[in-house]
User: What shape does this take?
Amino acid sequence: MKRIYSFIILCFLSSCAHQQQLEQDILQIQEKYELMGGIVVTFDDREILSQIPFGVADLKQNIPVTDQTFFRVASISKTITAMAFMLLVDDEKVSLDDDISEILGYTVRQPDFPQQPITPRMLLSHTSSLVDGKHYDDFLSALAKDTVPPLASLIQEGGRFYSQSNFIQHAPGSFFSYSNINYVILGTLVEKISQQRFDIFCEENLFKPLSIEGSFSVENLSDSASVAVLYRKINGNWKAQADSAMIPIQRMPLLTNYIPGTNAVLFSPQGGLRITATDLSKIWQLILNEGQHKGKQIISPSVIKQMTQASYEYDGTNGDHAQGLFNSWGLGIHRIIGNKGLDKVFEQSELVYGHPGEAYGLVSGAYIDPDKKYGVIFITNGSGKGYQNGERSAFYEVEAAIYQAVSRSLE
Assistant: This one.
């Protein structure tokens, strides 16, 4: 019996030592890369293993980052948007291979391949041929008015923001090109099928069942003042880029008059989720647990399998692989397949699922090892040195440094 107790004590002490070392490593990384603030969370399929907040969420008010800080997590949001759509697939309300034109109610076609339907599967795997064309930013800026421009104005021929630059010169389904518009469309499809606003659908069907407080509408958060400000350092001075002043009244006319299915870009399904890192880990625990949360099946194992299996793999010519980062993709899932070297997260892992994010000075990442049943969330709201790629990784240097430190603490 004493031997058992001694073993337990040794394991506890070892775990504490790893935690302390990880904290030291992260603080050194923060100093080296001049990170404004952020958090690193490690977890397994059952619980949080460690959560290490650092720095400040709001420089002007000197508010520190805590485990209760909300972040606009950028493109990690795409996995949640994918999961929302896959809930509808799970309920047999839509098929992955349906023609999106039939769902939207107007024709969307790659102009050089007018007979080839564009499907949700293609949107989810960034193989739809749709990209963020030259008028995409103008399309987003139109939201500053009191009305939401219809999605058709961007993707239907003849629309105000339509351009052939919205499409790459490849047949739908044949070429990988990462783009935001795919997920704007997916969010709109969720609305057309469910007849609910995208943010409300996610809250009712995903966040509440997982006991998550997160939202694609900052107005719905219990404390919008707890959202981290996102920063860039410009000419030696920190400049707020996003979430520096929450003024919900500016969006109220849009929300009040909005008709679901018009254009879900209002909720930024491609990058606008605000959530804490600890709550974000629940999404990835759901994947580790094949769609189950506390004994309840939220989404079926077969749908989780569809999300995580390869829909695209780079063969040298069939896509833009982002300098070695995007070698394999599922449905809303970045797949790290362990045979390239440039896209490593966990040093000893052969297969990793996740998603990176970057916007307004923030960099984020969420990754899990489905075999070893653990994962990491990393978010920073700004780097004084900017973000550079290293020689040995397609991830930014600061990301690679964090993932290496986490690997040492988990292996």
About this structure: The radius of gyration is 21 Å. The chain has twelve helices and 16 strands. The CA atoms of residues 78 and 303 lie 16 Å apart.
